[in-house]
Design brief:
This protein is α+β, with helices and mostly antiparallel strands. Helices cover 57% and strands 19% of the residues. Strands 1-4-3-2 form a four-stranded mixed beta sheet.
Length: 167
């Protein structure tokens, strides 16, 4: 078996030289274009990493400020409403109107606590309890003593009270 003598024909020599040169040029162009694209991708990824790093830093600063503001707001909470509930009015056969009037009288007495901060009211809770328990209510021409069962402090102060018949 013999190789055909193409090395003597100039047309074939030009064809193979052109194919080799075209392959080399396309290979160089491919690597150049691929390198440029990769460089753009690397630059974009680097910029995005920097931006993410900056945004994460800003988020941390915002969260820290948010926590600090929440803590300050919790420290300066004020009482905005006082609600009094008499729990054992039915044991003395008191009607709802009498119970509601008694609750309103106690709420009016405690109206001075409105717009005061919760911490200072909480610190004076023993004085508050004593002032409520020393009060005598007259309901249906009968005298009743008060006993504080529970007090909940927040922006709305809830007080549960039991009434006792004064002997």
């Amino acid at each position: 078996m013999r190789i055909p003598p193409y090395h003597r024909a100039p047309t074939w020599q030009r064809f193979f030289a052109g194919a080799a040169l075209g392959g080399l040029i396309s290979w160089v162009m491919f690597f150049y274009m691929h390198g440029v694209q990769q460089e753009k991708q690397i630059r974009t990824i680097h910029e995005q990493r920097e931006e993410i790093k900056d945004l994460n830093g800003e988020i941390a600063i915002w969260e820290q400020d948010y926590k600090k503001l929440n803590q300050q707001n919790e420290e300066i909470l004020t009482i905005q409403e006082v609600e009094v509930k008499i729990t054992n009015g039915k044991t003395y056969s008191l009607d709802q109107l009498s119970i509601a009037e008694a609750e309103d009288v106690i709420e009016d007495d405690l109206s001075s606590l409105l717009a005061k901060d919760v911490v200072s009211v909480y610190n004076g809770k023993m004085l508050l309890i004593k002032s409520i328990e020393n009060k005598k209510l007259i309901i249906n021409k009968k005298r009743y003593d008060l006993e504080v069962v529970e007090i909940m402090f927040y922006t709305k102060m809830n007080i549960e009270i039991k009434v006792k018949r004064n002997s």
